[in-house]
Design goal:
The chain is mostly helical and about 280 residues long. It is about 75% helix and about 5% strand. The protein is built from ten helices and four strands.
């Protein structure tokens, strides 16, 4: 508990600086590093040592995609990187028939998920950040909901949790904690909206609060999904990157689901806009 709080106390200011004050490419680089580590964690869990070239090409794609989006490249470039990764992995599969490691279709699918699909999902944050005047405050929104929901679920579950939510996937999670997380997500979104109004932004508090509630459900679904992956391979954490939190996938798993939802919500029901 103490280690978890200390890590959060150190990490949150760094995150806020990257989100609100640093150049977008700097935040894009940070997201790229997270995606690279997450790609390694996922592949190491599912594939073990594996072919080194396969690891390298997958991790390079995971790094390049967020950086590219932070520099304003079109979405089609991301699709192009995804296809290029598949092209490289296909060649590796053919070459592997004459080497030590035999690359299978399932290995290619895991590498595509780790190095292409997941980085593209998290890179949604960078596409949001490119929107003039409101991009940065919208980019912060999924973090507010994800971390607020996680904190609410943790403490409500600790003090009042009794009924297990998904005992075969995540034994410590409770239904009471999940409900607390949803309420906390909506409340954090509402508070964030009020702060933005005080800062001179236009905000639809109803839309923002509703997004907080729905976003919290989606965030917890993402958390459970990656927990199910861990159960399949019988591991506790993906890594030890963040003391008290685990690896990159342990800490940012919910954002892989929540970031794309934020982009969709912005398009369908704008909740934050610039005045004037």
């Amino acid at each position: 508990m103490k280690t978890r709080i200390i890590t959060a106390a150190v990490g949150l200011p760094v995150l806020l600086v990257l989100l609100l004050a640093a150049p977008l490419w700097a935040f894009g680089t940070a997201v790229g590093v997270i995606c690279t580590i997450a790609a390694y964690e996922l592949m190491h869990m599912a594939l073990g040592p594996g072919p080194k070239r396969m690891y390298i090409s997958t991790m390079l794609c995971a790094l390049a995609m967020p950086v590219a989006f932070s520099l304003g490249v079109e979405f089609s470039w991301g699709v192009g990187m995804l296809l290029f990764l598949f092209f490289l992995l296909s060649i590796e599969q053919m070459v592997s028939y004459s080497g030590r490691w035999r690359i299978t279709l399932s290995m290619i699918a895991i590498a595509m998920l780790a190095g292409g699909v997941l980085p593209m999902m998290l890179s949604t944050l960078l596409r949001i950040g490119l929107i003039e005047k409101v991009g940065r405050v919208r980019m912060l929104l999924p973090f507010v909901i994800a971390f607020g929901s996680d904190t609410g679920a943790y403490f409500v579950g600790m003090f009042w949790g009794k009924q297990k939510l998904a005992p075969h996937i995540s034994p410590k999670k409770t239904l009471e904690g999940a409900i607390g997380g949803v309420v906390a997500g909506g409340l954090c979104a509402l508070i964030y909206g009020i702060v933005l109004i005080l800062c001179g932004f236009g905000v639809n508090l109803v839309s923002l609060t509703l997004f907080g509630l729905i976003g919290s459900v989606i965030a917890q679904l993402g958390d459970l999904t990656f927990s199910a992956f861990k159960r399949q391979y019988d591991i506790k954490d993906y890594g030890k990157l963040l003391p008290g939190h685990g690896g990159a996938l342990d800490r940012f798993d919910s954002l892989y689901y929540l970031a794309p939802l934020t982009e969709v919500w912005i398009a369908m029901a704008p909740a934050i806009w610039a005045k004037g």
